[in-house]
Design goal:
526 residues, alpha/beta, Immunoglobulin-like, Rossmann fold, 2 domains, 5-stranded parallel β-sheet, 4-stranded antiparallel β-sheet, globular
Amino acid sequence: MRFATATPPVQVLSVALTAVLTTFGVSLFATAWASPPPTSTLRGVAATGGPLRGAHIAARDSRGTTVTAQADAQGRYTLDASTLVPPLALAATEAGADPRHCAQSQVPRPVCMVALLEELHVGSNTANINPLTDWMASDVALQLGLLGPQQLAMALPPTISPALPAAALAQLRAGFGDALGQAGVAEPGAFHPVTTPMQADGTGVDAVLGLINHNRGYDNNSGKSSATVITDVLWNPIAKPFGPQANEALQWERSRSVLAAITTAPRRIFIVGDSTAATYERQRMPRMGWGQVFEAEFKADSGVKVINGARAGRSSRDFYNGGWYRQMTRFMRPGDYVLIAHGHNDQNCNAHKPLRGPADVANLCTYPNDVQGQPQFPTWQAHMAFQNALAVYVQDVRAKGAIPVLLTPTVRFLNADRKAAYVGEDKRPVVSTHFTRQDASGGFAYVGNYVQTIRDTAVAYQVPLVELEAKTIAFANTHPTDWTDYWLEAAATTHFQERGARAMAALVAQGLRETPALQALTQWLK
């Protein structure tokens, strides 16, 4: 007897499914072997003159779609960008930091960089993130009316005219192309900071990154971070436009020589301060800060190297939170001297000042001590006391084995009414203006004397003190008729031209010489 062979249930299901799919015009063979949708991958390096290890990487398009990754120990990252629509903004934030702090100034700002990727192709795409990409993104942001690269990353338009990044790239090549070529980068005329392959290994592009300082500026009205700021290793600004009659491009050989001098100098002096001490680019001349020429006060064979990190517009609190001090600390070592010269911009404490008042108080303001010499600050905000802000530097410098020195600020060429002195028939002398008084609007939470607060801090922390304001007042009042040969009339008669900068540097040197605790340094003065 022969028995009928039953069709296995799986085979029945397969046949039935095939019939159904065929009915609807779907090929089972084609379905089973269809190619996956095309993918786009981003690969690149986050670097700052060495890898930005463990950096948080975020790629974002104009719709707000975001894909993230983490850089490895060499700064390399990979992410799937298939869901993104170009153009893309890529942001790198140092490991362990909150990316939201990249645009803020009320807390210490982390290392943050942005890159603009205009096109996204199927397959692998190179997208590096470094100070040069941030500089280029910043230029595009400014052309779009944005504050800087961080704002571009958060408000990326769906389309960007190719002319904008092209113009930014041309300026970048003008400012850094020669240095890139001397660093061994092939075809520097075709270099693109985002798409030219690189490694964070101290060669090529990374060698150039090792010769610059990178940061973001500050917007006075909003208190947010603004445009990218790049200086060479001695804090000379690298700023467009470039050319013989404009600003100087990054100098490869000179920068390498300066870096070697900084790292090997037997005696080093760091200047922490504001615009009165800062170094300026050629297009800002005749403005010059005293720190720019201070090294000339020392003997040629002294072995003294001055590192002037002073930055215009910064208060003691913001110079720290904005990352300017942090740039300098990578070079600090035991035995160094750190001149701390703040006080001008700490006075920005009038909350009712039109337009910028609230941002000033939130980001720049520190309050002076009261008449008893005690720090003043709002409840739970001890960091807003000027003495406490200065103490942050004193304690950190000492923790590094270096020697802090406090300076009172240079005088503004103003009389008691805060008007330019010795103008016309008004012969009233130059006096101190580094104090605050309550105004009719009641905009100051606390008032007091900033110079006296510096003195109080010097006593409280046993720090050598240079009474620079007193010296500059005496100097100013000996120049009632030719003061404009030293100070600039514009900008509240606060800033100097070269003759004034050199005179102030000489007064600083004199103040150091008069301080017995600094004899080990002052023996090297001329």
